[in-house]
Amino acid sequence: MTRYADIPKPIRSGIVVVDPDRGTPQRIIVLQFNPDTLERSLSPQSAGGSGDSGGGGSGSGDRNEALRLKGPAQETWKFTAEIDATDQFEVAAPDGIHPQLATLEMLVQPTTQQIRDASRLSQKGAIEISPIEMPLTLFTWGSKRVMPVRLTELSINESAFDVNLNPIRASLSIGLKVLTVSDLPAGHRGADLYLAHLAQKERLAAAARGGSLGGLGLTAAGAGTGTVGTLNGRG
């Protein structure tokens, strides 16, 4: 049998639930299959007001703020994950893929203990009850993309079941919002992790090869013209 010892084992993407105080992983969720595609969206947090909304704009934004940013861009991720136990029947799975699904669902659910604690405070006449805080969640896509996130969408399509109606195959549409220093309090571990994620982007951007004006059909501006360049061949 031919063996390919030099072929590296593929790295899986996944989610890590972290204790925000101690920084220790509480749970690691490894996606069974890496998604085939990723949809990423970045929205800059401009300081220019309504004039930079892109809708044909009233021009009411402060022109002195046109190139200023209020903070990091708001970034969202969307992808489809697959869970399939149909080829793993040699492993005892009396609950099908219920455990894997429940693990993901609990990322957007408070625990029964948290609900009971909040109810107990309410019955004692607490004037203000703080919303239940969830653990810090990280999404990992290789070593160069490790970022704090909040799960914003979880849509589950179960497509196969065993004889006890336990799901054994499912497709999950997952949406994530990257949490930035604008979303987290100062000193929060998640804010530090976001800064590390942003620093990684800066290092990758610095490694990119720069272009040239000639490649854009431009030439260097003449002295005193106040322009970056002029189109070649312009009459």
Automatic annotation (TrEMBL):
Biased composition (Gly residues): 48-60
Segments for region (Disordered): 39-66
Domain of life: Bacteria
Name of this protein: Uncharacterized protein
Lineage of the organism: Bacteria, Bacillati, Actinomycetota, Actinomycetes, Kitasatosporales
